[in-house]
């Protein structure tokens, strides 16, 4: 006997590897349909049930996939326990559970059995399964799978392969079961699947059930407009006429391959639009912050430093993919900025798994002087409204309100996306119920509206797709690429935003409330170097009174330099002494003796560990001090190399010594430095590669499918 079944659910699990006993992980079953067939294909039973919700609702975004709303499920649904009892009766006669991607459906049903009985249903778990998806991979032979293999076929792909046409009403469990059963028996006849129980394949005939009206017929009839009213007025109200507006959700080119906006361009556009402030909220990093603050202050615009973090359940858990929710966080002041950079560091060092991530626990540890916005569609509350239901979303609202109080704002976006209408309606209800202020935002990824095309090309370059491929913003698949739905993600003027939110004037007004909370601060400062631990005989009490004197460091550097010179040159001539004294004086005046001592120390330690060290590269090879302290192995006097190319008293800048270690020993040297100075005092310099003109043209041509020779 073959039990072919399919389910529709409230969404997807966070972790596909979780056991069915993890009830919080597995979504609820909204609909289940099954057909029981004997070994000849004869239909013995056919059942189709919508489940009555018990303590949960069906998310809006999911309802649009399978057509079953919370209202319909409450009206037409059946008690879960009774449905499972009926399923048990047919399971008694079942040799095989059959489905398309059946592992998912087995887990969904198994999780529901566990919720009812508080134990794994051994009868259900013990039945052998046949997966028409995995069994038909080579039969369908769809190219483009991982590792050069074929893709898993969707049920529609398989149906077309077998019968030359698709089938109607996919994502209705009853219709999907009928299609799966038809495909299963056809695969048996093609000898792709060969159950030993079917002995006479030629006599096999699939008996189809009579199907009721599909879910979407009822959905179309009952679905009413949920659009949030948007003013079509062409006049700005008197209430908003003199109210300033500030964009609080903006991305730059440091949101890697996701935005075309240059930092200076963002600031200049804000100034050109007459805005007194502008925020920067790049994805998962704050690499653009220094340039942003510097440029904004220079142009007389208040910089609002922020970051759009990926907030997951546990940022250290890398057992499964959890990209979390995109959460916009802004710093009120310098202390808030310090907390943001700590979060960004932890996100990239401890939390990086596909994307940089933080979690609630970490955020609460560093929440002081931070402002939180709910974000766009991929933010926690909007996304839960769409895919987990209003109850889960409201729980999140309560948590954020309890922990951030008046520094928590509900972000309203109006990019002309259908799903935003559903989200905004619920967000406004939450804001009113929980007394949370709303703010108007535009999630900006490019400066001008016309930049939407180049931005779309950039996304294709990132994902290795063609622009002609069908695109989807929400709910994509292997057959679609990610792409923005329209050209509304640009930096709109204050007047454009005021017209767009004419019916919600408070959303515009409240952006200024956030600006009023912001304190401007500089990020430029003197170079900070760790204090080098010099021998006691070279220490000077005056350094304790003023650490800028660096008397002890200069004295110790002079000592090891001259000791090294004796070994390098044997006799220290007047010429050598004059050069050494000149270099040491420049190093003293520029304030970098500690830099030389630090570098000399770890290079000396590297040689002790047997790590191969390069002879010296770049302008540092022109320093006799570097040569005499064994930082380099090239004599500048012999080759007449200039020290001024390395450290020029007329143009003081941080010295830069390029050092080469062998690949195997490099890690040991880094660990030595970390152990000596502390992990929070050591960092690797990041290097950003830019898209040069030639590579940009080449990548764009590939995306547009244009031959390079044209």
The helix fraction, in percent, is 40-55%
The radius of gyration computed from the alpha-carbon positions, rounded to a whole number of angstroms, is: 33 Å
The shape is: globular
Low-confidence stretches: 224-230
Q: Count of DSSP E strands?
A: 14
Structural class: alpha/beta
Q: Biggest β-sheet: count, sense, barrel? A: 7 strands, mixed
Topology:
Elements: E1 2-9, E2 29-37, E3 43-50, H1 60-66, H2 70-76, H3 80-91, E4 96-99, H4 102-117, H5 122-126, E5 128-131, H6 132-135, H7 137-140, H8 155-163, H9 173-189, H10 215-222, H11 263-272, E6 277-283, H12 289-298, E7 302-312, E8 325-331, H13 334-349, E9 357-359, H14 360-365, E10 370-373, H15 380-387, H16 390-404, E11 408-413, H17 418-434, E12 438-441, H18 452-463, E13 471-472, E14 481-482, H19 494-500, H20 505-516, H21 542-545, H22 551-569, H23 574-590, H24 593-608, H25 624-628, H26 636-639, H27 663-677, H28 693-703
Parallel strand pairs: 1-4, 4-5, 6-7, 7-9, 10-11, 11-12, 13-14
Antiparallel strand pairs: 1-2, 2-3, 7-8, 8-10
Helix pairs in contact: 8-9, 11-12, 15-16, 15-17, 18-28, 22-23, 24-27
């Amino acid at each position: 006997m073959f039990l072919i079944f399919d389910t529709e659910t409230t969404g997807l699990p966070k972790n596909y590897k979780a056991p069915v006993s993890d009830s919080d992980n597995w979504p609820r079953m909204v609909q289940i349909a099954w057909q029981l067939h004997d070994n000849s294909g004869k239909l013995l039973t056919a059942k189709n049930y919508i489940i009555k919700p018990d303590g949960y609702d069906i998310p809006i975004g999911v309802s649009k996939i399978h057509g079953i709303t919370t209202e319909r499920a409450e009206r037409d649904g059946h008690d879960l326990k009774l449905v499972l009892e009926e399923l048990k009766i047919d399971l008694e006669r079942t040799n095989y559970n059959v489905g398309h991607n059946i592992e998912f459906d087995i887990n969904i049903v198994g999780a529901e059995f566990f919720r009812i009985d508080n134990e794994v249903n051994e009868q259900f778990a013990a039945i052998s399964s046949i997966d028409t998806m995995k069994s038909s991979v080579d039969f369908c032979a769809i190219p483009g799978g991982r590792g050069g293999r074929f893709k898993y076929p969707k049920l529609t792909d398989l149906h077309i392969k077998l019968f030359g046409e698709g089938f109607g009403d996919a994502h209705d469990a009853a219709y999907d079961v009928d299609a799966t059963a038809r495909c299963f028996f056809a695969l048996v006849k093609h000898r792709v699947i060969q159950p030993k129980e079917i002995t006479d394949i030629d006599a096999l005939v699939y008996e189809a059930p009579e199907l009721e009206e599909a879910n979407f017929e009822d959905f179309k009839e009952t679905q009413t407009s949920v659009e949030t009213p948007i003013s079509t007025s062409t006049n700005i109200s008197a209430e908003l006429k003199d109210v300033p507006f500030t964009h609080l959700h903006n991305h730059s080119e440091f949101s890697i391959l996701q935005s075309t906006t240059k930092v200076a361009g963002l600031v200049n556009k804000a100034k050109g639009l007459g805005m007194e402030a502008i925020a920067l909220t790049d994805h998962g990093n704050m690499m653009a912050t220094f340039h942003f603050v510097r440029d904004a202050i220079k142009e007389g615009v208040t910089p609002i430093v922020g970051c759009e973090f990926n907030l997951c359940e546990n940022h250290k858990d890398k057992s499964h993919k959890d990209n979390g929710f995109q959460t916009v966080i802004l710093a009120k002041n310098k202390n808030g900025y310090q907390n943001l950079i700590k979060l960004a560091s932890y996100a990239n060092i401890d939390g990086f798994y596909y994307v940089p991530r933080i979690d609630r626990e970490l955020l609460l540890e560093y929440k002081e002087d931070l402002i939180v916005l709910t974000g766009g569609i991929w933010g926690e509350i909007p996304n839960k409204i769409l895919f987990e239901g209003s109850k889960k979303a409201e729980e999140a609202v309560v948590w954020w309100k309890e922990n951030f109080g008046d520094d928590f704002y509900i972000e309203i976006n109006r990019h002309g996306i259908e799903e935003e209408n559903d989200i905004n309606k619920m967000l406004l209800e939450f804001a009113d119920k929980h007394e949370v202020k709303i703010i108007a935002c535009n999630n900006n990824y490019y400066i001008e509206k016309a930049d939407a095309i180049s931005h779309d090309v950039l996304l294709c370059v990132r994902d290795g797709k063609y622009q002609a491929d069908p695109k989807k913003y929400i709910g994509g698949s292997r057959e679609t690429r990610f792409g923005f739905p329209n050209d509304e993600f640009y930096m709109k003027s204050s007047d454009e935003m005021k017209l767009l939110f004419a019916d919600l004037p408070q959303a515009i007004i409240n952006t200024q409330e956030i600006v009023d909370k912001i304190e401007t601060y500089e990020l430029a400062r003197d170079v900070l170097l760790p204090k080098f631990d010099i021998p006691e005989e070279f220490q000077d009490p005056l350094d304790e009174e003023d650490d800028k004197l660096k008397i002890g460091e200069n004295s110790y550097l002079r000592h090891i330099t001259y000791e090294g010179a004796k070994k390098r040159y044997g006799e220290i001539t007047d010429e050598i002494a004059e050069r050494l004294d000149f270099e040491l004086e420049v190093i003293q005046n520029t304030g970098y003796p500690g830099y030389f001592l630090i570098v000399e120390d770890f290079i000396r330690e590297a040689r002790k560990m047997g790590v191969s060290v390069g002879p010296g590269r770049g302008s540092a090879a022109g320093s006799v001090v570097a040569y005499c302290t064994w930082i380099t192995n090239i004599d500048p006097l012999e080759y007449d190399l200039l020290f001024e190319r390395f450290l020029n008293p007329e143009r003081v800048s941080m010295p830069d010594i390029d050092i080469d270690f062998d690949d195997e020993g490099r890690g040991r040297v880094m660990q030595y430095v970390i152990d000596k100075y502390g992990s929070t005092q050591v960092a690797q310099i990041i290097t950003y590669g830019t898209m040069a003109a030639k590579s940009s043209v080449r990548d764009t041509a590939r995306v547009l499918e244009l031959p390079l020779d044209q």
